[in-house]
Design goal:
By secondary structure, the protein is of the alpha+beta class. It is built from one helix and three strands; from the N terminus they run βββα. A hairpin with a 2-residue loop joins β2 and β3. The model has no long low-confidence stretch (mean pLDDT 83).
């Protein structure tokens, strides 16, 4: 990890087309601005993590629902069977 000190108004360049600007510093928080191409996805890590967790939980719930449906289908009487 690269660690830098920057003052308000100073910039960081990432590659040729991403610019990070320090906008403000208050107490323990820093406001930054990011100039990047529109097709570049930029997300806060905690939001991306929450979305991933929600996706995993949703997929698990769907897997359980599919399993229950399959079990119920296997338990249903078969119309082709002789009684």
């Amino acid at each position: 990890m690269l660690v830098l000190s920057r003052r308000v108004g100073e910039k960081l360049l990432i590659g040729d087309d991403i610019e990070v600007v320090i906008l403000d510093s208050r107490g323990d928080g820093v406001r930054i601005g990011i100039n990047a191409p529109r097709d570049m996805k930029i997300h806060r890590a905690e939001v991306a993590d929450a979305v991933k967790e929600a996706d995993v939980a949703s997929a698990h719930k769907m897997d359980v629902n599919v399993a229950v449906a399959l079990l119920e289908a296997n338990d249903a009487p078969d119309d082709n069977e002789d009684n």
